[in-house]
Amino acid sequence: MTLGLENVSLVRGAVDHLRDVSLTLARGSLNVLLGPTLSGKTSLMRVMAGLDAPTTGRVLVDGRDVTGIDVRKRSVAMVYQQFINYPSLTLFENIASPLRVQGRPQEEIERRVRETARLLKLEPYLGRTPLALSGGQQQRTAIARALVKGADLVLLDEPLANLDYKLREELRAELPRIFELSGAIFVYATTEPSEALLLGGRTICLSEGRALQTGETPAVYHRPKSLRVAELFSDPPLNTVAVEKRDGSVAYHGGGTAPANGLYAALQDGPYRVGFRAHQLAVADGTGKTAATAANGHHVFPAMVALTEITGSESFLHLRRDGANWVAVLPGVHEFLPGQTLEAALDPDDVFIFDIEGRLVAGPAGS
Amino acid sequence: MMYTLPGRRAVLGLFLVFLLLPIYWLVNMSFKTNVEITSTMSLWPQHPTLDNYRVIFTDPSWYSGYINSLTYVVLNTLLSISFALPAAYAFSRYRFLGDKHLFFWLLSNRMAPAAVFALPFFNLYSAIGLFDTPWAVALAHCLFNIPLAVWILEGFISGVPREIDETAFLDGYSFLRFFLKILMPLIAAGIGVAAFFCFMFSWVELLLARTLTSVNAKPIAATMTRTVSAAGMDWGVLAAAGVLTIVPGAIVIWYVRNYIARGFALGRV
């Protein structure tokens, strides 16, 4: 089936949860809803599921209007951020529950529950009740129940958000394989850009109830249409700076002037906002060797070290520059002293340039 | 390391004795003869006898009191819970016009003294032929017990995430099936506690029970009070009846002992 949303809005009291969202989700596709908290991800999912009716607009399944049709009559499954299972039933009965309601024969239930349990590595626990399990196993049970009934639309609302790091990594790696096996339309809500990139598929960027950009996940990542999309698809947060292009040179707000080479060359004179992700910002490493220098056309600024976060394989370097915070990411472990001044450099061919309304006017080529 | 008051056990022990003394004295009396009760003060029965209990279990005017009481108490508990459950679900899950006021009004029903309702109930039930039946008392007690049960159950239902309801509906459960198979097992403790409170109120309530019955549905508490004036002072039998009146409550409380505190907090943790 295909799922279509036509100009869907959802208003509750004085709050606009969704504003004029139009989407088409194709058969067997994996769709990531990416947006910060309160951006309308859950509202959108609830409308898709039929748990809430949109204030205006229509929900279409295979072109047929299903707005307002009871959830029981739709082929939908949902997994919540909280681990929602039936605490009084065993794992087996939890997973079997949609099949029991459908009145399937016992041996079919037995077979399908065991198949799904095997897929989600729950087989040893089928006799236990959900609360006797770890969070990861509880959430896998919820996912199993969503998968077992073979629904056409499976909604996962930040399913990994309440899990600890290790379990999250483990489940995240398994999910794309599970999606592929099922053939349903999957919708996966997350706040984390890395999760969207890992899952692939298509990404729908949501902000304040609006679908800002929809497309293949890598395409949206590499070619954000607006500053807002670039911001919500960047982790660590997108670095930004205001610039002014005039007479063949670029003046960076907060100090620093460079020739208008690279992407800047084609711009008309005027004010712009430049955005760049942590990995696009180069810094001189501890030995004093600058990775990128003014000599090969890079734009170089002095910046002060505020903090270094070391994860083990990477170091996140927080720089302070005229009131603005920038983050750079360096491979390996690096120690910088807070207060130390060093040189940060931008490749003028590898930045996103937005006009003052926030629309992308130039971005890195190729990708 | 917890610092303990010296003689803490002694203090607690004294308190326990203080609390249990009247009950012990009742049990003590119930095994004595009337002569022993009125003539001497003995800490335990000098000539233990089961005659008092024998009277109660053989004399219809006594044991029918228990049967009558249990009948309307059980009726009332069943009625209260079966009406309160859907109401509590509605208060917990839906927003409707005046829901908060209605919810509070329910509780305020409990603030009215039973005496206020005795006259209208008496008149109404006499008119429609319910007077002196267990139904009369059971229905009258609903006025106090349904609000209480709604409050307790609402608290317990609100402790169940709404997402469980939605998951069940997404799974295809009909409302009734969800309610019976998913929700009720989850709030079983709450149902037990609510039932206990209904049971206890109805069991100890005297005024309405006595006003709305005369002969056929006379409750045990009324039998006890009437005996005092009518048959002189049959202390031993009266004590035995008292002991037997405590027993059902003690049995019920045993089953819900772990949840009672939540019941007093009206289901709110």
UniProtKB/TrEMBL annotation, chain A:
Alphabetized UniProt keyword annotations: ATP-binding, Cell membrane, Membrane, Nucleotide-binding, Transport
Domain of life: Bacteria
ABC transporter domain boundaries: 3-233
Listed GO MF terms: ABC-type ferric iron transporter activity; ATP binding; ATP hydrolysis activity
The keyword Acetylation is assigned to this record: no
Gene Ontology CC annotations of this record: ATP-binding cassette (ABC) transporter complex, substrate-binding subunit-containing
CDD domains xref list: ABC_Carb_Solutes_like (cd03259)
Family: Belongs to the ABC transporter superfamily.
Protein name: Carbohydrate ABC transporter ATP-binding protein, CUT1 family (TC 3.A.1.1.-)
Species annotation: Enhydrobacter aerosaccus
From TrEMBL, chain B:
GO CC terms, sorted: plasma membrane
Keywords, comma-separated and alphabetical: Cell membrane, Membrane, Transmembrane, Transmembrane helix, Transport
Ranges of residues in domain ABC transmembrane type-1: 66-256
Transmembrane segments: 70-91, 103-123, 135-157, 178-204, 235-256
PROSITE patterns, per the entry: ABC_TM1 (PS50928)
Top-level lineage group: Bacteria
Bilayer topology term: Multi-pass membrane protein
SUPFAM superfamilies: MetI-like
Family annotation (InterPro entries): BP-dep_ABC_trans_perm, MetI-like, MetI-like_sf
Subcellular compartments: Cell membrane
Signal peptide interval: none
Record carries keyword Transport: yes
Pfam families linked to this entry: BPD_transp_1
Biological-process GO terms, alphabetical: transmembrane transport
Family: Belongs to the binding-protein-dependent transport system permease family.
Protein name in the entry: Carbohydrate ABC transporter membrane protein 2, CUT1 family
Organism: Enhydrobacter aerosaccus
